[in-house]
């Protein structure tokens, strides 16, 4: 009997300990996942994911480690999200494409690591199964910007408030799209290019350049080039290349062919290869010297 009481007392203590541990886990889960959030049983969330009030995460969504899903965020579709991403209030991520040809096929959205999606950002999945919408890593999408179906963003891209990307737009690494800019479908934007606020393009924007107005460019993104670590010699060569391509009045295709014989640095090759691959045509120089020899430019 004594032994039995001993076991009984020990069992009661174990049950209390288990109950306390279970309540502690439940409290932790409430801190990690708000009780008003709606998460489909088949959604896949890393245990470290935090989910805010009234967020909805549907079947087919995968969310990686240390992501933060804010209040009233909607994650849907076949959406795979990497680690360390943060979604602010009201984002809609992975919704169906705005394409009349789309017939509810199981299309996909892929998101890399350490991206920031500010308030009410919308990113749509692709319109066909053969191609995904892709967001790279360490991108910053500010409030109310839109990324349409089949877009492809590289790494360290910035989309400022209200920027609108139509379907199939491709942004290379370190592109900066300012507020309320508009990009036509199938447009490509080269690395380290910058669009001034309110500008609009329906043609390809070459690497390193600054877009202004409608399909215009007004020089090089000299500040961006310095911050990216291009040497003074590389920046000087790009200025000379820009003049040869856009300010000498030559046919662009012939100017590109001639420039290959003169300009040999790696950044110059990136510019020339981008231009040679253009199918939509390229934004043209507006005739302004803006972007050249800015104060403090040491190249």
3D structure, described in words:
The protein is an alpha/beta fold and 299 residues long. It has a domain at 31-171: Hexapeptide repeat proteins (UDP N-Acetylglucosamine Acyltransferase, domain 1, 3 Solenoid), CATH 2.160.10. The chain is 24% helix and 23% strand. It has five helices and 28 strands. The protein has an eleven-stranded mixed sheet with strand order 3-6-9-12-15-18-21-24-26-27-28. Strands 1-4-7-10-13-16-19-22-25 form a nine-stranded parallel sheet, with no helix packed on it. The chain has an eight-stranded parallel sheet with strand order 2-5-8-11-14-17-20-23, with no helix packed on it. A hairpin with a 3-residue loop joins β26 and β27. α3 runs antiparallel to α4 (252-259). It starts with a helix and ends in a 14-residue tail after the last strand.
Q: Could you please say which CATH topology of the domain at 31-171 applies here?
A: UDP N-Acetylglucosamine Acyltransferase, domain 1
Q: What portion of the residues fall into strands of 2 or more residues?
A: 15-25%
What is the CATH class designation of the domain at 31-171? Mainly Beta
Strand order of the largest sheet: 3-6-9-12-15-18-21-24-26-27-28
Main sheet properties: 11 strands, mixed
Structural class based on helices, strands and sheet pairing: alpha/beta
- The appropriate CATH architecture of the domain at 31-171 is 3 Solenoid
CATH superfamily of the domain at 31-171: Hexapeptide repeat proteins
């Amino acid at each position: 009997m004594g032994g039995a009481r001993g076991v009984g007392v020990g069992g009661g203590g174990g049950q209390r300990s288990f109950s306390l541990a279970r309540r502690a886990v439940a409290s932790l889960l409430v801190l990690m996942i708000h009780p008003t959030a709606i998460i489909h049983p088949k959604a896949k969330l890393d245990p470290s994911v935090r989910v805010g009030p009234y967020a909805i995460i549907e079947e087919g969504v995968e969310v990686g480690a240390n992501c933060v899903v804010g209040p009233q965020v909607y994650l849907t579709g076949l959406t795979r999200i990497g680690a360390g991403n943060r979604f602010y209030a009201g984002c809609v991520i992975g919704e169906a494409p705005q394409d009349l040809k789309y017939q509810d096929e199981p299309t996909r959205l892929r998101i890399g690591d350490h991206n920031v999606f500010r308030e009410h950002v919308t990113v749509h999945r692709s319109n066909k199964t053969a191609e995904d919408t892709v967001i790279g890593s360490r991108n910053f999408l500010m409030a109310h910007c839109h990324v349409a179906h089949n877009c492809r963003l590289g790494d360290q891209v910035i989309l400022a408030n209200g920027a609108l990307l139509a379907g199939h737009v491709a942004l290379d690494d370190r592109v900066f799209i300012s507020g309320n800019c508009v990009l036509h479908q199938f447009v490509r934007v080269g690395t380290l290019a910058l669009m001034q606020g309110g500008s609009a393009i329906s043609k390809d924007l070459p690497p390193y350049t600054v877009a202004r107005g409608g399909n215009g460019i007004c020089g090089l993104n000299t500040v961006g080039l310095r911050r990216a670590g291009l040497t003074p010699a590389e920046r000087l060569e790009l200025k000379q290349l820009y003049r040869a391509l856009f300010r000498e009045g030559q046919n662009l295709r012939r100017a590109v062919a001639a420039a290959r014989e003169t300009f040999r640095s790696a950044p110059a090759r990136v510019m020339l290869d981008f231009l040679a691959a253009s199918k939509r045509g390229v934004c043209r120089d507006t005739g302004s010297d803006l972007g050249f020899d800015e104060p403090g430019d040491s190249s």
